[in-house]
Amino acid sequence: MQVISIVNLKGGVGKTTTAVNMAYELAVHHNRRVLLIDADHQGNASKFYGARASTGSLADLIEGRAACYVDLVQPTNYRNLDVLPSDMSLLSADLSLVAAGGSARRCLSDLRDAIMEDGAYDCMVIDCPPAFTAASVSAIAASTDIIIPIKLDYYAIDGMRELVSQLRQIQTITEVHIAGALITQWRNTDVIRQGETWLRMHEPCPVFDTHIRRTDVVDKSTYWRKPLAECSPRSAATADYAAFVREFLGEEDTDRGTQI
Ligand SMILES: Nc1ncnc2c1ncn2[C@@H]1O[C@H](COP(=O)(O)OP(=O)(O)O)[C@@H](O)[C@H]1O
Ligand SMILES: [Mg+2]
């Protein structure tokens, strides 16, 4: 089973946008049974898919209040796509995870193992907060693939170096596979093009060939709470997320019409 964590220590780089759209693409266009896990107390991925954490959330799993993940999972309007939501209660759960020490940090690995045993999903996509919290470290440790969304600005490359070196530290404790950095909010300007070239030349980790163009409909999709492919099927960012997921899966970059 694939466990994909979307990680960056910065906010506003497109983690949640990547998590919600990647989960949708995998579920609807690639027929994978996907569990999207919200590991950020801001709960943006949960809100996006209309999942309410008040009836059960990741915090309940971490703090042992829920006997089984099945009780916490909520369906979305889309086939093959469920959500395990979070809200602010994840903050205190996070503290208890820290207090409980190493074994509790296996929380998301235990969840992965339980899901594999049940054969309930083909992949987990985990939207992480912009910090190393106990929940995000637990997510990273459970992952088969780490994706690092990156918004190219002056500080981005330093930030990414720092992140990759911290991920490598976690790697000394557990196996961590960085699938690659994904350039988001790309614009056709000199500065962005130079930043992209620089990043690809001095990459501290692999960089996906596909970049995600900056498109106003991404903001619109958050208001509509619909994945890009549903909200604006012909937008540049929709095509880019579809191409990115094909690249991630190692599929030929053919027209979507032949993919379905
Ligand atoms: N490709 C894009 N084009 C335009 N706006 C984007 C794009 N990707 C993300 N955004 C916007 O940037 C903001 C931050 O994105 P978000 O995914 O919430 O980042 P993070 O989860 O890393 O904090 C949001 O307002 C989102 O709509
Ligand atoms: Mg986010």
The CATH class name of the domain at 2-175 reads Alpha Beta
**Span of the ends, CA to CA:** 22 Å
How would you spell out the order of helices and strands?
A: EHEHHEEHHEHEHEHHHH
**Beta content:** 5-15%
Q: Widest sheet: strand order?
A: 3-4-2-5-1-6-7
Structural class: alpha/beta
Question: DSSP helix count?
Answer: 11
According to DSSP, the number of beta strands is 7
Q: Round the Cα radius of gyration to an integer and report it.
A: 17 Å
Low-confidence stretches: 256-260
In CATH, the topology of the domain at 2-175 is named Rossmann fold
InterPro entries: AAA_dom, DNA_Partitioning_ATPase, P-loop_NTPase
Domain AAA: 1-174
Protein name: AAA domain-containing protein
Pfam family, one: AAA_31
Structure, described:
- By secondary structure, the chain is of the alpha/beta class.
- It has a domain at 2-175: Rossmann fold, CATH 3.40.50.300.
- Helices cover 43% and strands 13% of the residues.
- The protein contains 11 helices and 7 strands.
- Strands 3-4-2-5-1-6-7 form a 7-stranded mixed β-sheet, with helices on both faces.
- Strand 6, helix 7 (156-171) and strand 7 (178-184) form a beta-alpha-beta unit.
- Helix 1 crosses helix 11 (236-249) and helix 5 (107-118) packs across helix 6 (134-142).
- The longest helix has 16 residues, at 156-171.
- It is globular, with a radius of gyration of 17 Å.
- The protein binds adenosine-5'-diphosphate and magnesium ion.
- The site of adenosine-5'-diphosphate has 17 residues, from helix 1 and helix 9.
